[in-house]
Amino acid sequence: MHIFELWHGEWGLTRDAEFRSDPWFIVSGKEVIESGFGKPPKDFFKKKLPPGVIVPGFVNAHSHIELSCIAGKVPQGSHLTRMGEIIQAERGTLTSQQIRQKAVDAIRFAEDFGTFFFCDISNSTDFIRFLRDLPLFNGNRYLELLGFSSPSDAERIDRAKELLDIDATFYPTVHSIYGSSPRQMRFVREKARHTSLSIHILESPAEIEFQNDEGPIVDFLQKIGQHVKHAEMQGQSTIDYLYAMGMLSFKKLLMVHLSAARIEDIDKLNDYVPHAAWVLCHRSNLHLGIERTNWESLKNSSLKMLIGTDSLATNSDLSILHEMKSLLEIDKFSERELLRAATWDAYEYLEIRENAIPYFLFVGAKPNILSMGAANKVKMLGL
Ligand SMILES: [Zn+2]
After folding, report:
1. Which whole number is the average pLDDT over 123-148?
2. Residue 18 confidence (pLDDT) above 90
């Protein structure tokens, strides 16, 4: 048994997310201690890996693993608010055992294709604790406070407070400007400002209408008895309201979607939070029929792009490799840009320690995303 082993592969990924031949890895147990290309350091026991591509694991920057049990229930082309109704109705019909089993299956599938880290949103304190104790799960856990009107918003705050008293390993967060009340925004700001916020922003054009107190989101809130006109929001755009509430001043800010963000919104974000990240969940947007026209403005902005999947309610899996495959089809990003967003950019933004990053071998694959997606065997290095 050697404490350190030197492994030699056929194809690897540089820190600049380019494929290069002849990678080597110094491995101890499950940890990759050092890696490089070309001539490796001497004096180690050498092991040749099977031909294929070796990459560091992928980061899913936005998921709702808790909703894996809703897979297949939201028809293609459903509106955002229709999805909300379906999720609400389905939730009540499932046991906690079923919800947990589907969650485990979804994580396993993603991991089988190289995704090892999630920025995951849970709605229940129960599920937040389940993920904490699940060895398979690795990532940041956010407890989302839903509730647009009183007293349900206050009740959710109380439940979050109770859990925070005994467990400070998760981040309280808000859903969106229409899913969480100003009171919840203030609570999250005080509790988590020095840590991280994950918030859905401008997922669909309906949020622009909502700013003027009209459109399907207002209808939806009325239907569920949650419609209120909060004074804090009146006459403000989504970005200005969040800014005024102090919701953009978090250490790590994950702005999810921005699909309907206009040039003026993106300009403001460039100004207010140049170092923040935005998360693209492309397949989920497609499923909900949300079309994006701001690709170039976001690409030219200072915001860091990360990749997420959203939940199985609107996606077929939580695998970032599959997300990249789908993104390649629209020809907006190079393979290198996508791979950077899924690996080194995400590690850097989320402060994931290098020795906590597992490496995956896609056996027999050629150095491109499509071929990796077709590999019939993927192995985690060092196991
Ligand atoms: Zn989401």
Report:
1. 96
2. yes
Rounded distance from Cα 277 to ligand 1 centre (Å): 15
Average confidence (pLDDT) over 88-94:
86
Can you tell me the distance from the alpha carbon of 64 to that of 146, in angstroms, rounded to the nearest whole number? 14
Distance CA 93, CA 88 (A): 10
Provide CB contacts within 8 A for 228, sequence distance 6+.
148, 149, 150, 181, 221
Which residue type does 192 have? A
CATH topology of domain 58-356: TIM Barrel (3.20.20)
Ligand 1 mean position, distance from CA 310 (Å) = 5
Q: In whole angstroms, how far apart are CA 160 and each of 123, 145, 189, 200? A: 10, 8, 13, 19
End-to-end CA distance of the chain: 14
State the pLDDT at residue 2.
Answer: 61
The single residue listed with the structure tokens 């976001």 is: 298
319 CA distance to ligand 1 centroid (A)? Answer: 15
Q: Is the peptide bond before 151 cis (omega within 30 degrees of 0)?
A: yes
Q: How far is the CA of 19 from the centre of ligand 1 (A)?
A: 31
- In angstroms, what is the span from residue 234 Cα to ligand 1's centroid? 25
User: Which run of H or of E encompasses 201?
Assistant: strand 196-201
Cα(18) to centroid(ligand 1), Å? 30
User: In the structure encoding, which two tokens stand for residue 361, read together?
Assistant: 């071998």
Residue 383 has pLDDT above 60, yes or no: no
Q: At 46, is the pLDDT very low, low, confident or very high (cuts 50, 70, 90)?
A: confident
Q: In what order do the strands lie in the sheet with 359-363?
A: 19-21, 11-13, 52-56, 359-363, 378-380
pLDDT in tens, 162-199: 999 999 999 999 999 999 999 999 999 999 888 999 99
The closest of 132, 226, 140, 145 to 180, measured between CA atoms, is 145
**For residues 260 and 220, is the Cβ–Cβ distance under 8 A?**
no
pLDDT tens column, 227-275: 999 999 999 999 999 999 999 999 999 999 999 999 999 999 999 999 9
Ligand 1 centroid – CA 37 distance (Å): 38
pLDDT at 45 over 80: no
Q: How far is the CA of 349 from the centre of ligand 1 (A)?
A: 19
What length does the chain have? Answer: 383
